[in-house]
Design a protein that fits this description.
This protein has about 950 residues and is mainly alpha-helical. Helices cover about 70% and strands about 5% of the residues. The strands form 2 sheets. The protein has a two-stranded antiparallel ribbon. It is a multi-pass membrane protein.
């Protein structure tokens, strides 16, 4: 349970910052930090056992038929990444409290941060690849909010859009790859997949799955050629950059490559794709970083380079390279998070991030300078810091690696990448902290920040030094546990130490240090040379691609989505006809089924004839809107009678209720439209529409004939009939299907219904404002209206019928599990009763006595249905599995209680809320069109007030 809580705590705690910000910034930061700290404590409680080799796992059934279960597991790899996410996250929360200005909405920032944190923890602890994909997409969405936090800055909005587009596209590719992987193995559980390396690599779908999964990893971890988005994401506040681009988001792709390493690595395809991409990214990112003048830009490209380093190590496919990669993940997270926070301190205290304006800041900012110099030296691979050890391990593995049978390519490029890394790291040291000041007129006078701002990077700097001096003690156990989880087998012999003797890697490291120093000395000359070189602009290419995609979509939309409902219907109907004809083309010898045909009874013939006549009349009378609406209502009534004739009372009740509600709401809408529609169609268009309609009718009729004349004894209906009472606890099969067997479908449908109602509200809300409101104010209604807007007979009748109708609704609701009825029908019945009350007594009078928030009612209904489904999880059952018990009470006797009642209540509330919300907005438009003030209607006055005796002159005086 604590494993699940570790994942859920950030999501649950995301509510706290929005609430606690009212108590002050300190309270908001404390509440946010407490959530992360609690999750970290729960994680650390399991750390000793995980390091000892134990694996924790917890599983909840969700959609087992689809292979989607909520399953988490914690091994060494998950422990490492979860520790980085929560540990560095806690430091970032403290740092952000002092970094963000009083004008920045801190509560919103911490909400986004916790949502992102929860998604990242979900990725690293998921044992189901489908669940992992859900969390993966959540990181893209929440990082979009974080990167675009300063939404007033165009660069922030553009960087967020670019990050979302690139990582989102890669995520879509990865979804396909993961589905292929699950199909090969026959399971979507990671623990099962990781045990089937031979099966996966022997499959002909191995390469497509590998490429698709790597697309997701490369886009998320900014590997070439998808590296361009990360530097533009630096427009985010520095706490975001320090968190996302050192230990979390950009490490997600690295994590997935490490997680899938046991089953995907070890093949030439893996080596040449992953190692090559990593090697190119390492060298290219380091080269670009040398010439960046923006501090965060330099660190961004250095991050790209170091991510390429880890990718390259994982791509080598050897156990020792995996160990080196794991160790560098730890080291990079420590020194890079500290460097980003240091860059934020410089920006915060000086007002600029331009390296060309700095120099000698160590004298003015000694604490921040010490932090920056140590962590930058570690990034350069200077002894005795932790970066030196993992760089030595990388160079050692590169020395033993061949590329296309050449043993010099990888060592040479790895040394060049290390040399460039020294150059940009030393530039961060010498051009910022040492030397003489280059600009005496900085926007702010430099000084050290408050304790809360330098303490988090200082703590990471201490780790940089301690891991460098005592690597086997501080990091050894965690590295071993993590590498063991990555390799999935026995670890190679290795020893974490500062000194490994006189090795080729040491020589390569010395070359890198000397070469990097010389390169920095020639930085000015190189800068002028590179400035004159033409090079592709990734941002311009991305913007051009987006612009062309938008132009293409606009072209398609303008031709398809032109506002003509007739065109929309034609496209859908013609598409359906085409699909149907393809079936006839595939089986040209179409024949009807072998079922015996029944004789046509007189009632059925009469009903069919009435249905046809009414439909044809509606077509020919469509210019008269009111008459057409009534004819459509008659069609619905005939369909309801058909359901009754075929012994389907549930469907009949539903159909009748829907027709009543629809007719009333449509009457409100028609009230502000002309009485008759203008004649728009030409004879040619009518002929075309007639041909399409006849073809569609013949197609639907043929499909129904083909289905109804075939033997369907093996359909699922027999299962529903046999198990409705046994498993669902109800004899009303239709209701049990809706709330149990197909409850997930119903859950989706009420969500769609709620969204539809809210969409109606939003659309009509735009009509009541701006230019549309002015048009309504000048609207001339061409309908003849009765002088008596509220007939007394109707008022009295609805007052009497309202409590009776509500009782009928409750009765239908309670009996629905065993008799015709249920939440949907009950909701429609209650809605009709309330709608009649509005019609009889007026909107204002009724609304003043029914102060109900219909928005909230819709939300409450969806939540009630969701809680019912989640409750099944607590009992260890699949989502929305219902249970029932028989209860005996005195006098009442024995009756059944089913958990499905809670779900049905959610359906009921959603239906009532949706119908009444639509009614309220349509009524508002109608009143505006008819220029009716609510208080001007007689029934909108309290009758008791009008009946009160007049005041005496003395009292008036």
């Amino acid at each position: 349970m604590s494993l699940t809580l570790i994942v859920l705590l950030p999501f649950i705690g995301a509510v706290l910052p929005a609430i606690m910000i009212r108590a002050g910034r300190n309270a908001c930061a404390t509440a946010t930090g407490s959530v992360t700290l609690l999750a970290l404590i729960l994680l650390m409680a399991k750390a000793p056992a995980v390091i000892a080799g134990e694996v924790f796992q917890v599983s909840y059934s969700w959609l087992p038929e689809l292979g989607l279960n909520v399953t988490f597991f914690l091994d060494g790899l998950g422990l490492l990444f979860a520790t980085l996410i929560l540990g560095i996250g806690l430091l970032i929360i403290i740092y952000a409290r002092f970094y963000l200005s009083k004008d920045d909405p801190m509560g919103r920032f911490y909400v986004f941060l916790l949502l992102f944190q929860g998604a990242m923890v979900g990725i690293v602890l998921s044992d189901n690849i489908l669940l992992l994909l859900i969390f993966w997409e959540l990181t893209s969405l929440s990082s979009f909010l974080l990167i675009g936090y300063w939404k007033h800055l165009p660069a922030g909005r553009q960087g967020a859009r670019m990050a979302l587009a690139v990582t989102g596209a890669g995520g879509l590719a990865m979804i396909a790859g993961m589905l292929i992987l699950g199909d090969i193995v026959g399971s979507y559980d990671l623990t099962v997949i990781l045990q089937n390396a031979d099966l996966i690599q022997a499959s002909p779908m191995y390469l497509p799955a590998l490429i698709l999964i790597l697309l997701g990893c490369f886009t998320k971890s900014a590997q070439f050629p998808f590296h361009f988005w990360l530097p533009h994401a630096m427009a985010a506040p520095t706490p975001v950059s320090a968190y996302l681009h050192s230990a979390t988001m950009v490490k997600a792709g690295i994590f997935l490559m490490a997680r899938m390493w046991p089953v995907l690595s070890g093949t030439p395809e893996w080596f040449y794709i992953v190692a090559t991409a990593g090697l190119v990214t390492m060298v290219l990112g380091a080269w670009i970083a040398i010439f960046k003048h923006d501090l965060k830009g330099l660190l961004a490209f250095s991050t790209v380079s170091h991510l390429g380093l880890v990718t390259m190590l994982l791509g080598f496919g050897t156990p020792m390279a995996a160990v080196a990669g794991v160790f560098h993940i730890i080291n990079h997270a420590t020194f890079k998070a500290a460097l980003f926070m240091t860059a934020g301190i410089i920006d915060h205290e000086t007002g600029t991030r331009d390296i060309r304006r700095f120099g000698g800041l160590l004298n003015l900012m000694p604490i921040a300078g010490t932090i920056g110099i140590i962590t930058a030296a570690s990034m350069a691979g200077v002894i005795p810091f932790n970066g030196f050890i993992s760089k030595e391990m990388m160079l050692e593995e590169a020395w033993h690696t061949m590329w296309l049978d050449q043993n010099w390519v990888v060592p040479l490029l790895a040394t060049v990448g290390a040399l460039f890394s020294v150059a940009y790291s030393f530039r961060f040291i010498f051009h910022v902290w040492l030397g003489k000041p280059r600009d005496e007129n900085l926007p702010h006078h430099p000084h050290d920040p408050p304790f809360g701002m330098w303490a988090p990077p200082a703590l990471l700097t201490v780790l940089v030094v301690l891991i460098g001096l005592f690597p086997s003690v501080i990091a050894g156990p965690l590295v071993a546990a993590t590498a063991g989880a990555v390799i999935g087998g026995e670890l190679p012999e290795y020893y974490l130490s500062l000194w490994h003797g006189l090795t080729p890697a040491l020589g390569m490291s010395v070359i890198a240090l000397i070469g990097g120093s010389l390169l920095l000395m020639r930085h000015g000359g190189l800068m002028s040379v590179t400035a004159n070189l033409s090079r592709p602009d990734a941002k311009a290419m991305f913007d051009c691609g987006i612009a062309k995609a938008v132009a293409l979509s606009r072209l398609v939309s303008d031709n398809l989505h032109n506002g003509s409902l007739q065109r929309y219907l034609a496209i859908m109907v013609i598409g359906s006809i085409g699909i149907g004809l393809s079936g006839f083309y595939a089986q040209p010898d179409f024949q009807s089924g072998s079922r015996e045909l029944l004789e046509v009874s007189p009632p059925a013939a009469i009903g069919w004839l009435l249905l046809v006549v009414t439909c044809v009349a509606a077509v020919f009378m469509h210019h008269n809107r009111l008459l057409t609406l009534l004819l459509v209502g008659v069609v619905g009534l005939i369909v309801s009678l058909g359901f009754i004739y075929l012994s389907a009372p549930d469907l009949a009740l539903t159909q009748i209720s829907v027709e009543v509600v629809t007719v009333i709401l449509m009457l409100l809408a028609l009230n502000i439209l002309p009485k008759e529609t203008p004649k728009e169609s030409t004879p040619g268009r009518k002929m075309r529409d007639g041909i399409v309609s006849i073809a569609a009718g013949l197609g639907v009729g043929g499909a129904i004939w083909a289905i109804m004349t075939r033997d369907l004894t093996n359909s699922i209906s027999s299962y529903h009939l046999a198990n409705s009472k046994v498993e669902g606890g109800g004899t009303n099969v239709v209701n049990v299907i809706l709330v149990d067997f197909r409850g997930f479908d119903t859950f989706g449908e009420i969500i769609v219904l709620g969204i539809a109602a809210l969409s109606i509200f939003a659309l009509i809300e735009t009509v009541t404002q701006g230019e549309a409101a002015k048009r309504l104010a000048n609207w001339v209604v061409d309908h003849r209206r009765s002088a008596d807007r509220h007939p007394m007979m109707m008022v009295v009748a609805t007052r009497v019928m309202l409590p009776l109708s509500l009782m009928v609704g409750v009765y239908i609701f309670l009996r629905g599990h065993n008799e015709p009825g249920g939440g949907f029908i009950a909701g429609l019945v209650v809605s009709v009763a309330l709608v009649m009350q509005y019609m009889a007594s007026g909107f204002g009078w009724t609304q003043n006595r029914m102060k109900v928030n219909y928005h909230g009612m819709i939300g409450l209904g969806v939540i009630a249905a969701a809680i019912t489904g989640v409750s099944a999880w607590v009992a260890g059952l699949p989502f929305l599995t219902s249970g029932f018990v028989h209860v005996h009470l005195p006098i009442v006797g024995e009756f059944e209680l089913a958990s499905a009642m809670g779900f049905d209540l959610g359906v009921f509330l959603t239906v009532v809320g949706a119908v009444m919300l639509a009614l309220a907005k349509l009524s508002q438009v109608e009143r505006m069109a008819e220029h009716v003030d609510i208080n001007a209607e007689p029934m909108d006055h309290d009758p008791s007030a009008t009946a009160a005796p007049a005041a005496s002159p003395e009292k008036e005086a």
